[in-house]
Amino acid sequence: MLLQRSILLPLLSPWRGHSTNKALMPRLSATLLGGPRSKSSLPDVKERTLVAVKPDGVQRRLVGQIICRFEQRGFKLVGLKMLQVSEELLSQHYCQLTQKPFYPSLVQYMTSGPVVVMVWEGHNVVQASRVMVGPTNPSAAQAGTVRGDFSLHVSRNVVHASDSLEGAEREIHLWFQGKELLKWDCWDQAITCEE
Ligand code: UDP
Ligand code: MG
Prior knowledge:
38% helix, single chain, binds magnesium ion, binds uridine-5'-diphosphate
């Protein structure tokens, strides 16, 4: 705990001496400082979505750039892991697509290498993520979206994002165990979202 204090407090010193609006100052979680967990006064943001970097995105070393976009936007990462997907998990994830003609090639693609799957949390994160990712077919995707910037063809569209609140909840339960999702206070939450 002493080590945590000695590292964290100097980092915070610019804020401690700052004369700007106190309401905008980040609040330090007691947990991060090793003290007892206090009840946070930050809004209890519940909306979460599942985003996955597909095997082509991992192979092309796009993981960092994709994570960067979600961090920059102000969303909070609450779960992250890399795994080789099983056909069983995929068939549950894409349960509405199993009868589509492209399903066999989708399975081949999605099992061709590891994926990086994550859960992001924040205001309107489900809809915002879909906009950030862009339409399913990269031919229709605008520059500035992940698919518009990094992909050409619907069969290799780099990234997945849940398409609805219900879908997000279902997918998060499918890919993550409850204990793998962390509840933590983000210091800038009061700056990126009105309380
Ligand atoms: N897909 C495909 N061919 C198609 C439509 C979809 O290969 O004609 C793949 C593509 O990887 C897509 C995934 O199937 O991302 C899931 O399709 P969905 O319609 O759910 O699109 P998404 O939600 O990923 O935009
Ligand atoms: Mg979908």
